[in-house]
Amino acid sequence: MAAIAIVIVSHSKQLALGVRELAAQMVQGQVSIAVAAGIDDPENPLGTDPIQVYEAIASVFSDDGVLVLMDLGSALLSAEMAIEFLPEAQQQKVYLCEAPLVEGAIAAVVAAAAGRDIHQVMAEARGALLAKATQLGVSPLSVVNDNIEVRNPEFPTKEIRLIVSNRLGLHARPAAQFVGTAARFQSQILVQNLTRNTGLVRGDSINQVTTLGVRQGHELVITATGSDADEALAALQALFANNFGEDNLVLNSPPAFHHEVTPATHGELSGIAASAGVAIAPVVHYQPTHITITEYHVDDPESEWQRVQAAIHTARQEIQAVFSQASLQIGDTEAAIFDAQLLFLEDPVLLEAAHQRISDRHINAEAAWQAVVDEVATSYRTLEDSYLQERVDDVVDVGQRVLRLLAGNLPANLHFDEPSILVATDLTPSDTARLDPTKVLGICTTSGSATSHSAIIARTLGIPAVLGVDAQVLHLADGTLMALDGESGKAWVEPESHILDLLAAKQEAWQTAQQEARATAHQPAITRDGRQVKVFANIGSINDVQVAVASGAEGVGLLRTEFLYLDRTSAPTEEEQLEVYQAIAQILDNRPLIIRTLDVGGDKPLPYLRVGFPEANPFLGWRGIRFCLDRVDLFKTQLRAILRASVGHQIKIMLPMIATLGEVRAAKVILGEVQAELNQAGIPFDAAIKVGIMVEVPSAVAIADQLAAEVDFFSIGTNDLSQYVMASDRTNPRVANLADALHPAVLRMVQQTIQAAHAAGISVGLCGELAADTLATPILLGLGLDELSVNPQSIPGVKQAIARLSIVESEAIVASALQQDSAVHVRELISTSVIPPA
Questions:
Q1: Per-residue pLDDT tens for 654-671?
Q2: Pairing mode, if any, of strands 278-285 and 420-424?
Q3: Is 767 a catalytic residue?
Q4: What SS3 class is residue 454?
Q5: Vertex 427: Cα angle to 423 and 429 (nearest 5)
Q6: What would the DSSP string read from start to end of 78-132?
Q7: Exactly one of 171, 453, 649, 743 is catalytic; which is it?
């Protein structure tokens, strides 16, 4: 019997046994072949088990080598993990091979039976498709996709599968982040939407990724082939795990009160409510310059291609300027829309298509560019998904910008001398971002939707907008008086006096409410019966803290330090961290700053802080404080930076994912060591710095009385606590609805934690998403929380909600809520409780 052994790893036991039988017949039993396939679950038998793989390798182990062939997905992960269980000397003699399972197994056993060495056997397995490809007349390098050439064939292809949890899937901003991340690596990245059964597309193409039509709950498979495949997949996985920086709240969503076109009464125009508010002003028409393109033959296609490249270069500079201005006006989050436009200009598929069209057809740059942009726009329009269909606006916007530069046209004038209502067929996102809200009081268009990027920008700028009105408005003379109500979706041409009076009253009431909210935001949040509740901000960057202070934050209840560790290839240094902590504390101007120590793992992996083995359930794995206690070097670096920043500021340290007393005590020992080192070096720090913990694990609730004796404060993280109490992964769309923080089971956990904290004389806050839900405010007040920490934009609303309530009323609501049998009934109870209106 040949010394080299083969192990077949497959999700299907029947498939693996069939492959083994076929391979064994080729060599009449001369090669040892073991199978590790399927899992021991009669209802769901498909899967792979690392222990099974380990046992299979051990059963046929040979010093001459063991070749492991796998089908897909977790088979590779299981095989990698299985090798970790082997003695180190044996690990060096086990080889994972990316060859096709059936053809590879047959080629491998034949080579092994012929006495070839392990490297020759691997080479034979890898070349197993060559004969089939030659017979069919297909190049083996292009079997993935007509437009995809497999690079780096000497490297194995690595693969991950992900369920998308973003509320809107891979819309423009997440797609831009995905493509930008994929492009940083040498490896070839390919993506497939399994839910929609699409083909594989290039991960470095913004259009190909976006047109996969990826929505919330869809399953993707992402492959990487190349020297840095592991790092690339880890970086992409981190994006998904972190929801691409989106908090899945409905931020800047279209007004919920009116989405349909309602029948117009006499004298009214009816449309789509896209941005709330009232505007009364003369009409000014905006007509973007129409660019007429004529196709003609060129003798020098290369110079035409250079013209395209020059126009793209200038367009990139223009969009970057729009992005910078938009960041100041509407904030980084919404301005990221223009990141996608920048990536459109770098899309290799688009650029290659334009270059090829110029070269093959010898046509001018304008005609070639227009043709490829039209093709991309058409691919968006043919998608079934209405949200993704609307991204055509962004494609046309950036396409027209390049076309204008090629044609030598000046940008359209969007300057208004007097306050006006802008009337147009439509507005592009970059047009909208250029508007001055003091001059453009309202927007009225004949097309568009409430979920378009233009509408999102209008809402962020605070410009009322009614879209999709009758085309007759395009024939109005400039200067005609118009009124519009962005809340009801109605517009009036030369409105009668009673309409003007009603709208003026509504406008005044709206402006008063806005002023009151801003004024209230900077006042303490005090209930009607005199209890003050502190309202802090959850932040994840220096920009966030500026927004928080402007919104009325009384401090920072949660600084997520993970942002310092993202988008880089190594951990931040002590000096880098110190600079950021000091800058944030400076902006807070002696307001409290609670810094949570590094909380990675679970849904927040980092490529360069690798666990070393894949975790079957990372939410129950090596994350939070568990990671930091094992990586003392990283932990000490962060603690040193926090302590050094604490001088002259109200900084506190918060430890995440605490499950045991031992973890708190171990962390405090390390903190003590760092303090001693700083003392010895004569470096100042706040010796009385307070240390608290996140309460987000049920075990921490159960021993809250013991933990309270060890720390200075608690902060309840309802996002994680909900999923652990309800045993439901909040990133799994099938069960995420169970992880509801208003479920009585979760509320009782919160109550128990607060009671233990107050009995020990320490404060307790809450920093989960529940804190920002004003429906839940009476529950949180009634439970006795000392502080709430929310996203900066929610601060004014939460403070207003607190001011409308009394503790007595809230406690009565809580008493009843704790007796309900579901989160639905808790919500119904709150909704029907008598709470004074805003």
A1: 999 999 999 999 999 999
A2: parallel
A3: yes
A4: helix
A5: 145
A6: HHHHHHHHS-HHHHTTEEEE-S-HHHHHHHHHHHHHTT--HHHHHHHHHTTTHHH
A7: 453
